[in-house]
Each structure stands twice: as C-alpha cells, then as structure tokens.
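Supplementary Methods, section 5.1.

A reviewer requested that the exact input to the structure prediction be made available. We therefore reproduce it here, unchanged from the version used in the analyses.
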Amino acid sequence: MKLEFLQLISPSLPVGAFSYSEGLEWLVQNKKVSDEKSLFNWIESELSRGQITIEASSISHIMRDLINWNDYKDVEYKLIIDEWNSWLSSLRDSPDVRSQQIQMGESLLQLLIDLDHPLPGNEKKLIWPIAWAWAGVSWDISEIDLVEGFLYSWVANQLSAALRLLSLGPTKAQQLQKKSLLLIKSQASFLLKQNPKEIWVSDVGAIMAQQSHVELYSRLFRS
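The structure derived from this sequence is encoded token-by-token as follows.
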C-alpha cells in the first residue's frame, strides 16, 4: 500500500469533512438513530443502497477520463469531466449535500495544487468524488484501494459525527468501523464492476433527513 493512501484517508485531511453529518444530526434529533445498533443499520443501508454507491462506482471511470485530460490537455476531455461533475451533482437532492460536495472537492483540489499535483489550468471547481479520483491519479493509488478508501472515509466521518451526537464513545466507534470493513470491501469490489449510470438507489429516508437538516432549531453541523 502506498503511504499517500494513508494521507488521503486520514481524518486530519483539511477538507472540512468533520463539519457535516449528511442527515445524521436530523436522524438523531428525531430519534431515528439512537444507539449503536440503529447507527450501524444506518451506515450499512447507505453503503448498500445509498447515493454514495453511485459516486464510488464512478471513481474508476473518472480516473481514466482525468488521465486523458491531464495527458492531452484537450477541451474534449475537460467537457467529459464537466459532464461527470454535473451528473453527480444532480443526483444529490439536498442543497446541503450539494454544497458539501462542492466545498470538499474544492478544498481537496486546492490541497493537491499546494502539493504540486494541479489539474490542467489549476482547475478546482469540481465536486468531491472527482477530487478524490484526481488524488488517486496523482498519487498512483490503485482503483480498488481508492474506492475502498472512499467508502471507509465516509464511514469514519459518520462515526465522527455520531461521537458528537450520541453517547457512543470512541471504543464503540472503532468497533463499528471494524464491523463495517467486510461490507466496504465487498461493496468496493462489486461497484468497480458496475456501470454507475445503471445503479439504482433506495435511500429516500436519507434524502429526507438531509433535506430536513436545515429546519432543525439548533445544529452542530453545517447547513
């Protein structure tokens, strides 16, 4: 495993992921998630059939298109990346999550610029999955590692949010992260073989929670 991969999935990566709950705060306040079991059910359902599965499945395809754009500097390949950007953004129903994707994507691309891995023209107005894919290209991370890391970091951020919302404790959070590993591995292998534009999701509850987050009277996480 390349050490750059550890840098990418580190919780100290300065992209602001810790400031978002992706609907978890609403679920906790409305007692839909209240303990270790219901929290893991939430994580498991999103890994299995949430919108993140489409993003994870897209990463390997985006990597190849980014390589073409970087190698040939052709506007045709830039337009392909723009299409990915628009399509993945449009799949997110919640303005909160769309804003999160934009902010985290720009932050990671700016970090990669500062680490001497710029996209052509120092482009940084791209969303999170595309920025993640470019990090994989820049650091020569394998597709399977990159997709596993994408899912792993999402789980880690959800558990980080849960630590601030529930009486969970760091040991329980670590146990849940470990419990999720088999599903992360199997999903990553499965999603690598799929056409992201043929994946169906069924996470209406998550979408409603994300859209309702802004209506909470008080919030720990960004809206």
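Residues 21-215 form a domain with the Urease accessory protein UreF fold (CATH 1.10.4190.10). These observations are discussed further in the main text.
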